[in-house]
Amino acid sequence: MSDRFQSSDSLRDVRYEIRGQLAQRAHQMERQGYEIISMNIGNPGLFDFRTPETMRMAMIENLPSSEAYCHQKGIFPAREAVVMQQQERGVMNVTAEHVFIGNGVSELIDLTLRALLNAGDEVLIPSPDYPLWTAAVTLNGARAVHYPCPPDKLFQPDLDALEGMITDRTRALVIINPNNPTGAVYSREVLEAMVALAERHDLVVFSDEIYDGMVYDDAEFIPIAPLVRNTLCGTFSGLSKVYRACGFRVGWVAFSGTNELAKDYLHGLDLLASLRLCSNVPGQWGVQTALGGYQSLKKLVRPRGRLYESRQAVIRGVEASEYLTLVVPGGSMYAFVGADTNKLPGFDDQEFAMELLETQHVLVAPGSSFNVDYRNYFRITILPEAKVIDDVFRRMEKVLQGAGH
Q1: pTM of this prediction?
Q2: Residues 6 or more apart from 269 whose CB is under 8 A from it?
Q3: CB 3.0-4.6 Å disulfide test: which of 93, 211, 232, 387 passes with 178?
Q4: Residue 234 three-state SS
Q5: pLDDT at residue 59 above 90?
Q6: Are residues 144 and 247 in the same domain?
Q7: What distance in Å separates the CA atoms of residue 174 and residue 205, rounded to the nearest whole number?
């Protein structure tokens, strides 16, 4: 019998390989009794990171107030906490009415694009990208145009190439800083140039800052909202990464810049938020405590902090390898590792990832999953402890040595 129930044509060009075939094979192997080291997803709770106790207590103490639907934009204390964060950064034209709380940033990416885009519109997205951005653009009938952030530019945006990609159908510019998957942290000069392009061409700036503050050594996180004056800016962040609360499913987008000229768009976004009733209420009670309380992340990203030392283990592992290269990540919880094609001319990221999984029981995300046109990179998370990462690189070297001979 033929397959009578087929998926929608809208899914034809949608990819999310991070949880795709390789991850499915890893789950299958785990059910067979193998212990898999999962380096493919930034999920702090799987690596014994705990959500701050004060956030858990705030949620527990407010459970009696969490049983009804809340306002479609989110509870007021959470939205006001986001407003106060923006004001501390010098963004003064934001009120609680300009903040939307969602079931993670993931949901808000879809809603904000759906409220903006018409069929045939274009959105500028970095390459490499976090593939949900590309998928959401595609699902909403628009075209993702990938501007290059190449390895030879240390994964910084190629501003000349970016400007050449703007057309009369371009509606928005997506910036991911600190970047996933590369760990690149953009300078003020780069961000100012990108904002100037957006303002000159009347593009909405969507700034994905879910890793804000997760920076190392002398890297500095520059929030983009204070730089935007003459167009609309949507700043995305949430509890998942910085506050190690992925399962709470709480993210937000705060609009600033030319809010007065975007009333119709914001009304449309409010309508979409209403149609899904509201986001997870219990987790929202952690926002005010998170943003206003002790920032425990700072200890983790400093020397001797766990994230810092795990990042050092990645750097060590690459330096010790005969075959690997690395642009040292300045931020986020990932490293985008390259294979030297002079020594491994036939290297293919998908084949390497599958062999690493099958023979060494390590799961990584192939670089081509992040909308790039080269196949000699892969992404790993730096969440495991340093000793685990040391072991992972020893296992990788066994596979690479086999490919190099």
Answers
A1: 0.94
A2: 100, 111, 112, 115
A3: 211
A4: strand
A5: yes
A6: yes
A7: 6
Per the document, the length of the chain is: 405
List the CATH number of the domain containing 207. Answer: 3.40.640.10
Structure tokens at 211: 């890793």
User: What range defines the domain where residue 345 resides?
Assistant: 10-50+299-404
Cis peptide before 131 (omega within 30 of 0): no
DSSP 215: B
pLDDT single digits (tens) 70-92: 999 999 999 999 999 999 999 99
Residue 113 contacts residue 136 (beta carbons within 8 Å): yes
Alpha helices in 346-385 (DSSP H): 349-360
Count of structural domains, the chain? 2
AA letter at 125: I
The structure tokens 């009304």 sit at: 267
Sign for the CA dihedral angle at 6, 12, 17, 18 comes to: negative
Q: Are residues 103 and 227 in the same domain?
A: yes
Sign of the torsion formed by the C-alpha atoms of 89, 95, 96 and 100: negative
| pLDDT band at residue 14 using 50, 70 and 90 as cut-offs | low
The domain boundary residue, chosen from 292, 327, 359? 292
148: preceding bond cis by omega (within 30 degrees): no
**CA–CA separation, 261 vs 400, rounded Å?**
55
Long-range Cβ contact pairs of 44-51 (< 8 A, separation 24 or more): 44/241, 44/244, 44/246, 44/333, 44/383, 45/244, 45/246, 45/247, 46/383, 47/383, 47/384, 47/385, 49/244, 49/383, 50/244, 51/239, 51/243, 51/244, 51/245, 51/248, 51/286
168 burial level (CB within 10 Å; 0-12, 13-18, 19+): exposed
